[in-house]
Amino acid sequence: MRIALAQFDAVVGDLEGNAAAIRSSAAEAAAEGADLLVLPELCLLGYPPRDLLLREEVVPACERLIDELARDLPLPTLIGTPRRIQSGSRRLCNSVALCRDGRVEAWHDKMLLPTYDVFDEARWFQPGDRPLVFDLEVQGRRHRVGVLICEDLWRAEDVGFNRPYDVDPVAMLADAACDLIVSPSASPFVVGKSHRHRAILMEVARRCGATVAMVNQFGANDDLVFDGGSLVISSEGRVIGGRPRFKPGTSTVAFEESASEAARLWEADDLSPEAERFEAIRLAIAGYCGRTGHKSVLLGLSGGIDSALVAALAVAALGPDAVLGVLLPSRYSSEGSRSDALELGERLGIRTEEISIESMHSTVAATLDPVLRKDGAGLEGVADENVQARSRGLLLMAISNGRGHMLLSTSNKSELAVGYSTLYGDMCGGYAPIGDLYKTEVFELSRWMNREHKSIGFDSPPIPESSIEKPPSAELRPDQRDDDSLPSYEILDAYLRARIDEHQSPARIGSTLGLEPELVARMERLLAISEFKRYQATIIPKLSPRTFGRGREMPVAARWNEGPADGG
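The chain above was modelled as a monomer; its predicted structure follows.
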């Protein structure tokens, strides 16, 4: 038996383009002699469609197109699509259509609807009540095939989320004595998640005594990245085939293929955390620009590590001709920062421009001075620093508007966590490529890109060594350094990981890391008072278990405390 796995870039809402990709995948699978083609979850409409599902024309259009595809496809095919039902409170299902012999023969409706992190499927869909099981005859032998969609199989175990469900679709298929279990999936990328996927698939294969084939979506939709990584696991729990991560296409796997050869292919696809982040961000930038119609990007170049990394990632995603770097020096900018920014431009082969903000800064200060001095000093302190950042943001947005380049924000996760970034200043932009990288991870990825430059498409190390090694500084006042206002990034990031990604209490984190209570209280306050900034931040591609944005629903105007100590 031969099964074809097609992971392709399904663009949300592009029914015509997605249908064309399905037809192309089917033609390729048929030419390779496949007996069954399996496509990702909701691949006809794209995942996640979110409130597109509420528009009255969307699901009927999907239903019409599924009927057309069923009539034309040259082999049995499982296609992910939404469909209407006549009962239930939501009247829609997240479904897979079995298309065979010119018609839609049967449906599987997703049973487990995730409602954690970035997921809110119960908002739109009614859950199914049983898996689809069908027979597939190949060369005179009948195979029993069971279907589960994404969460039906993962059960939140792939993200380590404690989500006890009342039903177990895997157990239902174990009782159905299936020869093959297929799982169309749209599981978003998180660093390290692919290893958990493989372990879960192996456990399910052994538990059910069946071959398991998982097909995952590829591409990037808004804040979510999909790395593919489709796999076929034998009933003994061995990898026997699949499709590489971060590469679209169709692979046909024969169940008799060599498990040892497949294992070697998997090992070649076993990426380091830095390689995973690089591939995910590169895919995210290219995907977002492609979907929004932007052919070029720009960003401010400060000479520091954040803008250097974003520029290098943008070049990796789009090419040097599509990236514009703008230097925006002030009276506080060092000559070293300027030379580092220019060196970065030369290393990357991008166009650079330079605009001083000095006259703008002086004009704003002089304009505000009469008002501010009526009840205090003139423009100074944080207000003065923010004027500088917002002057840069204004100029960059003007270039973006005037020339159609999309502005990339260079804020990292550590800065966003504690508010060390300026709203309407360096937070300006249409996309924040490193918004889910802690500062220590920014350094790690930058060093990795320099080490691995040849394998990722650069002739020489792309990032100046001085940008990596010098102490971080916003350069908004004389001799400023980040550690004047913040603890070291090693301490800060360790605290933030435990607090944001793992939800640990301040007391527990402080005890584990050996931190003074005053420092813990300070970091907690910075995290809390910066929530309003994050509420207005631009789109951040998800790389970690807990990303600022859609998957982290925190109140803005809140005042958390544990209540009276005596319970009174």
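The first strand starts at residue 2 and ends at 7.
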